[in-house]
Design goal:
Elements (H helix, E strand, L loop, with lengths): L13 E4 L4 E5 L5 E4 L14 H24 L7 E11 L2 E11 L5 H14 L1 H6 L4 E6 L1
Parallel strand pairs: 5-6
Antiparallel strand pairs: 1-2, 2-3, 4-5
Length: 141
C-alpha cells in the first residue's frame, strides 16, 4: 500500500548533472560525487555509478529492516552484514537491473537466518519498491 504525502517523515533530494557521466549531489551537500559508467560498460570507471549508489542504499535499508525484524523476534544479530549486488544488463526494453542480497548473521543458525532474511524482505522499503519489477535473490553468506 502506498503512503500518502501527509505520511512522509523525510524526503531526500538529489540532482544529477550529465546523467551517468557527470555528477550527482544531495540538496543538503552531504553527498556530492562524480558519476561515470564502469569500464565494463565503456566508461572511465573513475567515479561511482548509479548501480553502486543503489547497492549502497539497498544494503543499508535492508540491514535496517533486518534489525527491526530481529528486535521484534527477540533475536540477536550482532555482527551481521548485508551486501547488495546490483547488476545491469540488456533486456527487451533496453536495460534492466537485477539484485542479489546476501546476509551474514553469525549469531544464528542457517534456518533462523533464512527466516529473518525473508521477513526483512517483506518490510524493507527498497524491497517493497522493487517487488514485481526486478529479480531480487536472497542468500545467506
Amino acid at each position: 500500500m502506498a503512503i500518502q504525502q501527509s505520511d512522509v517523515k523525510y524526503t531526500a533530494t538529489a540532482t544529477a548533472e550529465n546523467g551517468r557521466d557527470g555528477r550527482v549531489a544531495t540538496h543538503d551537500g552531504t553527498l556530492d560525487v562524480v558519476v561515470n559508467p564502469p569500464k565494463e560498460m565503456g566508461g572511465s570507471g573513475e567515479g561511482t555509478n548509479p548501480e553502486q549508489l543503489f547497492a549502497a542504499g539497498y544494503s543499508a535499508c535492508f540491514q535496517g529492516a533486518l534489525g527491526v525484524v530481529a528486535r521484534n523476534e527477540k533475536v540477536d544479530i550482532t555482527g551481521s552484514t548485508v551486501t547488495a549486488e546490483v547488476g545491469i544488463g540488456s533486456n527487451d526494453e533496453g536495460f534492466g537491473i537485477i539484485v542479489a542480497i546476501k546476509a551474514a548473521i553469525p549469531t544464528v543458525d542457517a534456518a533462523t537466518a533464512k527466516a529473518l532474511l525473508e521477513k526483512a524482505h517483506q518490510v524493507c522499503p527498497y524491497s517493497k519498491a522493487t517487488r514485481g519489477n526486478i529479480t531480487v535473490d536472497l542468500a545467506i553468506a
